[in-house]
Design brief:
It is a single chain. This protein is an alpha/beta fold and 429 residues long. Helices cover 43% and strands 13% of the residues. A hairpin with a 4-residue loop joins β7 and β8. It is globular and about 60 Å long.
Length: 429
């Protein structure tokens, strides 16, 4: 091994420490996942340092023969998997995909309808996010806090009265399918373009376990590709455009709108993920939802304030827990982190502060990817109870979490099943 500088050693050791921490932890962040070894191979390929500006077959750089072949195959896989006519694999994240759609389909001063942040929307829809930076005005759908979903009658009335240019659906706290079918008449009557942000539920959509937005009235769907869809940290746009002009506008929104290089190594890994989801996606998505419901019920039975209890808690990978009476979201998330349980604090309806919210957001997609099933959800709930309700010693709970996790460090539902999920490759010899 060559001699490394102090700085290089520092970075390498911290990355290894991070891997060890997650190897010994229960990962329940709803927006994260781990990827297959074949995808990691793509990330380490020579695609990493190359450029392919423009559309397939119309690049501004030479040397893209094999890149074009890979990207073409990936678009074919995406169109087949999601049942759409258009797929763009170039956005480098879900938010960049959102920005591309904003640039392609709106102008400054236009009005779009979105969920409110406190009701679970993503920050890219806020005035201080991508929507605001585009200069677009927003109106928020009425929200049913009991059902944790958009109020259908209120939304129909709002769409008909306000006639937004674009109606955006999709959440960061996404428990139940959006009521696209129920709102379809209002969409048609007003001519609004329907946009669905499927970042959190893309894998569930691919696995036929949530909803099919592009068959239920949406014209375009954006997403990140590393949540319930267990791919690289990248983005995607999928669409059934109204016409050729909309398709051109979406393409222009991506390039030259918001990207130059589209991170070819991630694009190649995404192609692998698309193929893996065709093969493993239905089983994977089904188990994710089973695990979410089981974890929600187990926490509820132990006295936790899991939202939407009267409506089955969730139909996705996510559940929301009100922990205001246990110290609030910030305090609980920090205590759980010290015990090697990784969650995030989250705003719930009625909250005004994102720094000190009342809730926790939990996601089961990564623990499912590691092979956990319903029985393990009860074990996880018991750790929450011991730490947050019984106030047991953090060190004691942490030791039991580490022992528990030793059985679940290898990947399922992908090429390379039983490969260590958090393996750190030692490239230096």
């Amino acid at each position: 091994m060559p001699n490394l500088s102090r700085n290089a050693n520092f970075v390498r050791e911290k990355v290894m420490a991070h891997n060890r921490y997650f190897e010994e932890s229960i990962p329940l962040i709803a927006s994260e996942n781990v990827i297959s070894p074949l995808q990691r191979e793509m990330l380490n390929s020579d695609f990493n340092g190359r450029y392919a500006e423009g559309w397939v077959g119309h690049r501004y750089y030479q040397g893209n023969r094999f890149v074009d072949e890979v990207e073409t195959r990936g678009m074919e896989l995406a169109r087949r998997l999601f049942g759409c006519s258009f797929a763009d694999l170039r956005p480098i994240s879900g938010t960049v995909a959102n920005m591309a759609v904003l640039f392609g389909l709106t102008n400054p001063g236009d009005t779009i309808a979105t969920p409110a942040l406190a009701d679970g929307a993503h920050i890219s829809t806020a005035k201080f996010g991508a929507v605001g930076m585009r200069g677009v005005n927003t109106i928020n759908y009425p929200f049913d806090t009991e059902r944790m979903n958009i109020d259908i009658d209120g939304a129909i009335k709002m769409i008909r009265e306000k006639k937004p240019k674009v109606s955006l659906f999709g959440m960061s706290l996404f428990l139940f399918p959006a009521p696209l079918k129920e709102l379809s008449e209002a969409f048609i009557e007003t001519g609004t373009t329907v946009w669905y942000d499927g970042a959190h539920v893309l894998g569930l959509i691919a696995g036929k376990k949530f909803q099919a937005p592009l068959s239920e009235g949406a014209h375009v769907m954006t997403a990140s590709t590393h949540k319930t869809f267990p791919g690289p940290n990248h983005g995607i746009i999928l669409a059934n455009p109204r016409d050729e002009e909309m398709e051109k506008a979406l393409k222009r929104g991506v390039f030259p709108g918001v990207t130059s290089s589209h991170h070819l190594h991630e694009m190649a890994a995404l192609c692998i993920a698309l193929d893996e989801m065709q093969k493993f996606g239905r089983r994977y998505a089904s188990q994710i939802v089973k695990n979410s419901k089981a974890l929600a019920q187990s926490l509820y039975d132990r006295g936790f304030g899991v939202l939407a209890a009267d409506y089955g808690f969730t139909e996705s990978h996510t559940l929301a827990v009100n922990v205001q009476n246990l110290g609030g979201g910030s305090s609980c998330a920090e205590a759980l982190e010290k015990a090697n349980i990784v969650v995030n604090k989250n705003m719930l309806p009625g909250d005004e502060s994102s720094v000190h919210p009342s809730g926790l957001r939990l996601g089961t997609q990564e623990v499912t990817h590691l092979g956990m099933k319903e029985g393990e959800m009860s074990d996880i709930a018991s750790f929450f109870e011991r730490l947050l309700i019984r106030k047991e010693n953090i060190g004691s709970v942490r030791a039991d979490v580490i022992r528990f996790k030793r059985r679940f460090r290898k990947l399922k539902y992908c090429y390379g099943e039983n490969y260590p999920a958090y393996k750190f490759e030692h490239f230096l010899r």
